[in-house]
Amino acid sequence: MQKKLPNVKRYGLEGSEAIAVLLDQIIYEGAQRGIVDVVAGLSHRGRVSLLAALFGYPKDELLRKLRGGSEFPDGSPWTGDMLVDLAKPGAVRYDDLDATVNIDVLWNACHLESGTPVGMGKSRIKDINMARAKKNRNHTIGDHVLAVSVHGDSSFAGQGVVAESLGMSGLAHFTNGGTVHVVNNNQIGYTTPASHTRTTRYASDIAKFADIPIIHVNGEHPEELARAAHLAVAYRQKFRKDIVIDVWTFRKRGHNEMDEPTFTQPAMYDAINKRASIPAKFEEKLISSGHLTKDAANAVKLGWLTSLNAAFAASETCAAKEPARAPRWRMLGSSASYPVEKTTGVSTDTLYEVGIKSVAHGDSIKVHPRIERFHIKPRLKRLHEGHAVDWATAEALAFGTLLKEGYNVRLSGQDVGRGTFSQRHAMFVCQDSEKVYVPLNHMDTDQPSGQQGKLEVVNSNLCEEAVVGFEYGVAVEDPFTLTIWEAQFGDFYNNSQTIVDGYIASGETKWGQQNGLVLLLPHGFDGGGPDHSSCRIERHLMLSNDPVDDHPVALPNIYVAYPSTPAQFFHLMRRQVKRNFRKPLIVAGPKTMLRLASATSLLSEMGPGTRFKPVLGDPSISDPRAVKRVMLVSGKLYYDLAKLKSEHPLGQHAAIVRIEELSPFPREELYSVLSQYTNASDFVWVQEEPRNS
């Protein structure tokens, strides 16, 4: 590489080559214990070498990328990514075990360590789905899938998402059966010495707070790395917990091949430049001990070099191939053009049934009397008497009807079981035993096992970045699970901005990797102060590639909605998994609307033939020709305006039009509604958010 492409920043593995031995042995040890899939999160350092030498990435395609080409075919809609974030599914074959292990290499946003929780989420749901497919009732999470995460020493010690990920690794709804963490500890971070990258003695010490064992090993001795792999996988399989292997190595060149490391580390690099390469030392040891002949060693090197030269020549004309899509994703289509939206309504009999069962509980569960009085009885009364239902009921109807159709729902976030505003109560906690009961998981007790989906209610630990990254991993692995992360308050998502930017909003654009993750972000200026009001709708719109001043030719990268009725929210949730493609959805969710008497919906609004409407006209206008002013608004402010309008003597001359979906902006639907008001001359956008938002 230094001879052929000396000016390419490839972040080489020289000085840490034995990491390849370690990873190969980890996979081999896993295969001996029944592991069939490995979810591999790789760091920048050595990624290209590992892809080529271990994970079977076609070398001609890799060299095409190194020479400035794309990892995708010519004409692909995907932009591609940096060389050190590359990924492609691979496989490793072990003939002596008669086993092939699939390697799911993660696409990785460039933000260091952000891929750690993504791999955790992806591996957990992959393992669970395998067990479901095999109808394995004795399944323990981690039986089939192993997560391996490679880190740099400085980022492992420095990035907060590492501590967040380790802290949730043993939690009930987040464990993946244990991740094997490999710290490529070359004792320097870019130009910063270890003494300035951490307070602790070892780069791996952060793992101690989570009672995670750490194996320190000398990276210049490949046999020792193989022994560390054996111990690590045996521990993981026995206890189903994370374990860290801290590999002490060195970095032969600078941070990348264009850097001059002696500017800042002259003494370190004086010592490094005097060291023989690790492969050369190991080769010498094997020859001197009689395990290998010089001719055999030369033949191995010549064969590899010959294959590289052939790949280098082929890279000039080779055509990159699209990464293979996982079987579940092959059941869906692309998102290249605007879809014809299907109806998402459900029969009112089914809605009624689900609504009743959403608050049902057995005699063994003693529900809190206030929940009985203010949650269960009012819901039953509305349903029995045919009245409009509130937001929490519509949400339960959306989840319950999807479960009856075989979809799974994973609702994650801080306090989501009860709900931040004590509105949801998706789970009842027995007042005698503290046993948790999820009514929607008991709708069809007489239905064949496995036919109804499962609602997983995940009261997460108190962090955002790692949890959102985890849920993204779930969403990209399983498009048939409605995966939702709800912020306690909308602005709490701020701490996960790295995941929103690097994965959720841009993953499909960069990698062709769809995801249907939903972010529910409670929003509204209700006197809660500056840090509990705005979910920053403007930031999400800035992330959207929906054109501002032109008609779109393709779907945007993200959907952003601010629905104003429970029925609209019901349809949004169902639409998310009923489409034949997946897009992330950002929902500015309700706070005051949760209990607002006028913010309710009839079951008929969720019945057969109904769907989400991106624009809602003014239902109070009897004569559109009388309208002089049209006010455009989103979300809860509609109800304040509607109340004022109803009390104003000139109210019939003003129409309030609700923009329910902001990305993609509903141009055609808006034109259709506005065209009714033929005499209107005054058009106003109204919002409670600051003007520059």
TrEMBL record:
This is Uncharacterized protein.
